[in-house]
């Protein structure tokens, strides 16, 4: 026996999460939050979460955007090259604002490091919010019906034994991201839009008259306006926030599974206990549950919590282990009787300083990158659709009249009336009454 092998035994037994996930076909991974479901992706995301917790205040942050004084001169466009009106970084959700701008007659391009493709897991949204795409003119009412995979009412809100509130037409539609994004992609290309897939942003040089996007493959693209739709982990946002640790983080785990006999209503938010253990941490757990459109007994169940990002906090895999223990009681099912089709997980940072003020001329964030609304307070796709008409009109005016300073840009990011994610984070850490939540839900949140 070689030195160092004495006493060596088998490695640690796989977790229940790993055993469950290894039995599931992870399918093709796509860009955007929730676009990958494999155990390896879970471990990678846990590494990212650990790195967030370990961030030091003096950490060096890569400089992605630099300001170059004066106009862009002696730039070699090459044969057949052009200057875009708008370049959108991040295509899974950026495709919507890009298409809206292209439909306004602007020359628009999208830079996406993967391929622009919607995930398998449904997005939940209200019909009112979905109709924003029709009002902007990039989707028809007939196409709305084609992408809806589930439609249900009512939805429950409840905390422990404090009673229940049932609401209608809130997050009550499940839509197919795969179908919707494919429609948008076809619309965008047919309207003259250009797509640069498999290309990552390396840096941006902002001049007085143009911005130049330098790509990781050595190429470069000039434009008048850069839209950052790269989500919560945008490298541009990291630079703007100086790599600062988030004030709070929402950790989400869940499943889409088959085998739920009672499956006609949803939970927008439900909590049945105050504090539970996840790993070595005490956390307050919240639940969401939605019927899924893939079958009459198919249901998506989310468990999430709000935590401070510090060393020793619960990992996503530890939350999943708690999920397997508690979900059967919450959904009144037997875990072994379920056919688990997908395991879902995500990390969503929250900041007190939100929405994020524009920091650079000719560069502006949209969606989760902007912090205009936090996840679980109807962020992601819902947040983008809600503001799409206002933002696309504002961008068109900026381009028409050459309004590209960060001061003018900041006026486009009016704050939402209520930040649900921030409220929950601080209420769970400062012992606020759950009835405050019901008050805000009924009186202040724009649903």
What does this structure look like?
This protein has helices spanning 16-22, 39-53, 94-102, 127-136, 141-147, 177-190, 235-240, 316-331, 380-401, 406-410, 420-430, 434-443; strands at residues 65-67, 84-89, 108-112, 123-125, 148-151, 155-159, 164-167, 173-175, 194-197, 201-206, 211-215, 220-228, 248-258, 266-271, 276-278, 281-283, 286-291, 298-307, 339-350, 363-365. The radius of gyration is 23 Å and the shape is globular. It is 30% helix and 25% strand. A hairpin with a 6-residue loop joins strand 17 (286-291) and strand 18. Helix 3 runs parallel beside helix 9 (380-401) and helix 4 packs parallel to helix 9 (380-401). Strands 1, 2, 3, 9, 10, 11, 12 and 20 form an 8-stranded mixed β-sheet that branches. Strands 7-6-14-17-18-13-19 form a 7-stranded mixed β-sheet. With 447 residues, it is an alpha/beta fold. The longest helix is centred in the last third of the chain and has 22 residues, at 380-401. The chain folds into 2 domains: 16-54 and 245-350, no CATH class; 65-149 and 173-243 and 353-417, FAD/NAD(P)-binding domain. InterPro entries: FAD/NAD-bd_sf (IPR036188). It holds the Pfam family Lycopene_cycl.
Number of domains: 2
The amount of beta strand, in percent, is 15-25%
**In the CATH hierarchy, what is the architecture of the largest domain at level 2?**
3-Layer(bba) Sandwich
The number of E-state strands comes to 20
Given the structure, what is the number of helices? 12
Largest sheet data: 8 strands, mixed
Please identify the top-level CATH class of the largest domain.
Answer: Alpha Beta
End-to-end separation in angstroms reads: 67 Å
The overall pLDDT, averaged over residues, is 85
| Computed structural class | alpha/beta
CATH superfamily heading of the largest domain: FAD/NAD(P)-binding domain
Low-confidence stretches: 1-5, 415-447
C-alpha-based Rg, rounded = 23 Å
Q: What is the CATH topology assignment of the largest domain? A: FAD/NAD(P)-binding domain
Overall shape:
globular
Helix percent reads 25-40%
């Amino acid at each position: 026996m070689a030195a160092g092998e004495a006493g060596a035994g088998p490695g640690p037994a796989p977790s229940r999460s790993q055993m469950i996930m290894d039995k599931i076909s992870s399918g093709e991974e796509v860009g955007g939050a929730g676009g990958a479901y494999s155990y390896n992706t879970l471990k990678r995301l846990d590494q990212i979460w650990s790195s967030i917790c370990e961030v030091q205040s003096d950490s060096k942050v890569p400089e992605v955007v630099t300001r170059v004084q004066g106009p862009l001169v002696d730039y070699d466009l090459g044969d057949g090259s052009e200057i875009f009106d708008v370049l959108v970084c991040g295509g899974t959700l950026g495709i919507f604002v890009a298409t809206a701008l292209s439909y306004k007659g602007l020359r628009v391009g999208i830079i996406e490091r993967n391929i622009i493709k919607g995930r398998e897991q449904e997005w939940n949204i209200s019909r009112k919010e979905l109709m924003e795409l029709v009002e902007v003119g990039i989707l028809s009412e007939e196409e709305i019906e084609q992408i809806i995979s589930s439609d249900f009412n009512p939805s429950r809100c409840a905390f422990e034994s404090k009673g229940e509130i049932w609401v209608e037409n809130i997050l009550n539609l499940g839509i197919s991201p795969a179908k919707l994004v494919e429609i948008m992609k076809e619309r965008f290309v047919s309207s003259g839009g250009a797509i640069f897939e498999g290309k990552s942003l390396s840096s941006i040089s902002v001049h007085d008259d143009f911005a130049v996007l330098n790509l990781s493959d050595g190429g470069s693209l000039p434009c008048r306006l850069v839209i950052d739709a790269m989500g919560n982990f945008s490298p541009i946002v990291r630079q703007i926030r100086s790599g600062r640790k988030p004030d709070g983080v929402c950790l989400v785990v869940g499943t889409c599974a088959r085998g739920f006999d009672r499956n006609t209503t949803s939970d927008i938010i439900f909590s049945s206990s105050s504090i539970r253990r996840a790993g070595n941490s005490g956390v307050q757990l919240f639940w969401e549950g939605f019927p899924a459109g893939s079958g009459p007994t198919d249901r998506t169940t989310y468990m999430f919590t709000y935590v401070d990002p510090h060393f020793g906090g619960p990992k996503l895999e530890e939350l999943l282990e708690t999920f397997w223990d508690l979900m059967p009681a919450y959904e009144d099912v037997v875990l072994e009787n379920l056919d688990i089709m997908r395991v879902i997980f995500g990390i969503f940072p929250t900041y007190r300083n939100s929405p994020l003020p524009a920091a650079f001329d000719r560069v502006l964030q949209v969606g989760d990158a902007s912090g205009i609304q936090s996840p679980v307070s109807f962020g992601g796709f819902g947040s983008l659709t809600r503001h799409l008409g206002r933002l696309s009109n504002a961008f068109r005016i900026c381009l028409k009249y050459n309004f590209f300073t960060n001061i003018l840009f900041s006026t486009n990011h009016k704050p939402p009336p209520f930040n649900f994610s921030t409220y929950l984070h601080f209420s769970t850490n400062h012992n606020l009454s759950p009835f405050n939540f019901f008050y805000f839900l009924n009186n202040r949140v724009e649903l």
